[in-house]
Write a structure and sequence with these properties.
124 residues; Trypsin Inhibitor V, Chain A; 2 domains; 3-stranded mixed beta sheet; two-stranded antiparallel sheet; 33% helix; membrane; PASTA domain-containing protein; transmembrane helix; transmembrane
Length: 124
């Protein structure tokens, strides 16, 4: 008996990739590299060139109203501020050399080295 050869199954038709898709795959590594370079550059500038956003140097101004001017000046220096005597106002209700007003006001946040003006009382 003669054996018949079974025909081999036909190979599936070759898939053709559209031209635009092969072009997009060709430039994809360049786009990814460019975007990665931009992000890395941005992070370097953000973290090392302008780090003030991450490490704020602002601190609260201490309350010195009601203290003697020498104590107020020392407290401001200890907190990193520069005290400056402002106006001398006649006031009989508080002892002389007592701080009546300060600018900037207490608890406002200012950078280290900011000048804080204090107005003190004098005898009328």
């Amino acid at each position: 008996m003669a054996t018949q050869a079974t025909p081999s199954p036909a190979a599936p038709p070759a898939r053709t990739v559209p031209r635009w898709r092969s072009r997009a795959r060709g430039i994809l590594p360049y786009v990814v590299t460019g975007a990665s370079g931009f992000v890395i550059g941005y992070l370097i500038v953000y973290l090392f060139v302008f780090p003030s956003q991450l490490v704020p140097s602002d601190r609260p101004v201490p309350e010195v109203v009601g203290l003697l001017d020498t104590d107020a000046q020392q407290r401001l220096r200890d907190a990193g501020f520069v005290p400056q005597l402002g106006e001398q106002q006649a006031n009989a209700s508080v002892p002389p050399n007592t701080v009546l007003k300060q600018n900037p006001v207490a608890t406002s946040r200012k950078p280290k080295g900011t000048t804080v003006v204090i107005d003190v009382a004098v005898e009328p």
